[in-house]
Write a structure and sequence with these properties.
The structure is a single chain. It contains six helices and eleven strands. By secondary structure, the chain is an alpha+beta fold. The protein has two domains: 54 residues, 434 Repressor (Amino-terminal Domain), CATH 1.10.260; 119 residues, Jelly Rolls (Sandwich). A hairpin with a 6-residue loop joins β1 and β2. The longest helix has 11 residues. It is globular. The two termini are 17 Å apart.
């Protein structure tokens, strides 16, 4: 997650803004009360999938969580340092224009270290997604189809179909992807390390 970003304080602020106790949020997110407490104390760093599960119970998207409450003036260009890191410390997902108020798609620069996996539970959400592998390799499962994509290969599919991403290679995989409607505004796509 973004260096210097206080995950615990932000979660506590959002929970309190909604008038929820730690226990009530834990119940809604189907996690333990101690999980919420430890995250709010910054005693543990949650995986993206764990954080997403909690944020879905609020409901708040991952990009809104990291973007904060301030929206930015729309601009046409973004330098590398202006993209919002929404990864979990192991994975890096840099979201373009996270604070743009009228964003209708998500564009991500994704990095998967060897062994990274979206998890055994297949992902499903509204919309479409596509991407181009720019380095390394990734195994992608969509419905019952499985393919290993390498640098230069691409994918595009209906996100309502069950899908999974796994880096089965020995080096980092890099993908540039897009999702519409904006996945990280809807809080529907998650990736984590197995």
């Amino acid at each position: 997650m973004e260096a210097g970003f206080d995950v615990g304080a932000r979660l506590r602020q959002l929970r309190r803004d909604r008038g929820l106790s730690q226990r009530e949020l834990a119940k809604r997110a189907n996690v333990t009360n101690s999980t919420i407490s430890l995250i709010e104390q910054n005693s543990v760093s949650p995986s993206v999938s764990s954080l997403k599960k909690i944020l879905d119970a609020l409901p708040v998207s991952i990009s809104a969580f990291f973007a904060g409450d301030a929206l930015a003036r729309p601009q046409p260009f973004y330098r590398a340092g202006e993209m919002t890191e929404i990864g979990d410390g192991l994975l890096s997902w840099r979201l373009v224009a996270a604070r743009r108020p009228d964003r209708s798609m998500s564009i991500l620069h994704e990095r998967y270290p060897p062994g990274a996996d979206t998890g055994e539970d297949m992902l499903e959400h509204e919309g479409e997604e596509g991407g181009v592998v720019t380095a390394g390799e990734i195994e992608i499962t969509v419905n019952d189809e499985v393919a290993i994509l390498r640098a230069g290969d691409a994918y595009y599919f209906d996100s309502r179909l069950p899908h999974r991403f796994r880096n089965i290679g020995t080096r980092e995989c890099v993908i540039v992807s897009a999702n519409t409607p904006p996945t990280f505004s809807e809080g529907s796509r998650e990736r984590h390390h197995a």
